[in-house]
Amino acid sequence: MKFKLPAFLENIESPVEGEVALRKYAANPLAFGGEPDLFSAGNVAGSDASCADVANNSAAIVIGIDEVGRGPLAGPVVACAAVLKSPDALLTLNDSKKLSRPKREAMFEDVKDACACYAIASASVEEIDEMNILEADFLAMRRALQALGFPGLNETAPEIPIEVKGSLNEALHPNDASGSVILNAKREGSSDGSSNASPLSSLVSHLSSNILIAVDGNLKIRGVPAEKQMPIVKGDGRIASISAASILAKVFRDRYMDKLEELYPGYGFDKHAGYGTKAHLDAIRRLGYTPAHRKSFHPKSL
């Protein structure tokens, strides 16, 4: 089922405003349902006071999720789940596609610092070919959520190691130092990277009613409770946490494609990131396919 943009986000003018609106919604969705104008652009316009009020409400958080790599002919699909320390933690956040690669690279560490927690996960070329790109995309998203300690997920470890900072428990309880210890215990206790009724999941489960997953696009993630999700059309330009996830996922994948160019020189993976540019198609005609190419994505022109 495809979803339209929620009405209360139609007039949002910046990712910060959108983040404030969603955090208010996550804290009190019933109020939103009863009063549709509660989150109008006029009511959520980001003053410093409203951002501070929302940031201090540890009972509700927004997890922004975005992906990169659906369309390329080669390489993995990468997803990031990110929770910001506050809606205005980094005012320069925007859709990664609107930023040049040098700009994204320059922002990368600042974006990570602005996050209370984040996880970057992936699905491999083999998984894309086996299950199709949409299901592989959902798999990468579930892996990112699982790495943060979202309850009820039990995915295998991806081929590319997950990059993770913090946990949902730490984001919900920033003054509780025990969160990182619990998360480490979960990881060390599982040889395959899967999650098995971890203490962290137990801690998060009773709090998850105040967690809202903001997904870029018009679809909800299969395998994640639908009631915990809100698809946001063009969310990477409307919601700050999705913007952060977009930049982190894009830089992570770009750097991985740089390594593929070292492994398979001459294809230009460091320039086109696996997308079907003329230069990439010419390289395939000249050199053939690599193991990094998706078998299910072969263009008819080749």
Layout of secondary structure:
Layout: H1 15-27, H2 29-34, H3 41-44, H4 48-55, E1 61-68, E2 77-84, H5 101-114, E3 115-123, H6 125-131, H7 133-148, E4 163-165, H8 168-172, H9 178-188, H10 199-205, E5 211-216, E6 229-232, H11 240-263, H12 269-272, H13 278-287
Parallel strand pairs: 1-5, 5-6
Antiparallel strand pairs: 1-2, 2-3, 3-4
Which key features would you list for this structure?
six-stranded mixed β-sheet, alpha/beta, Nucleotidyltransferase, domain 5, 13% strand
Can you describe this structure?
The protein has 302 residues and is of the alpha/beta class. It folds into two domains: 7-253, Ribonuclease H-like superfamily/Ribonuclease H (Nucleotidyltransferase, domain 5, 2-Layer Sandwich); 258-297, no CATH class. It contains 13 helices and six strands. It has a six-stranded mixed sheet with strand order 4-3-2-1-5-6. Strand 1 and strand 2 form a beta hairpin. The relative contact order is 0.18.
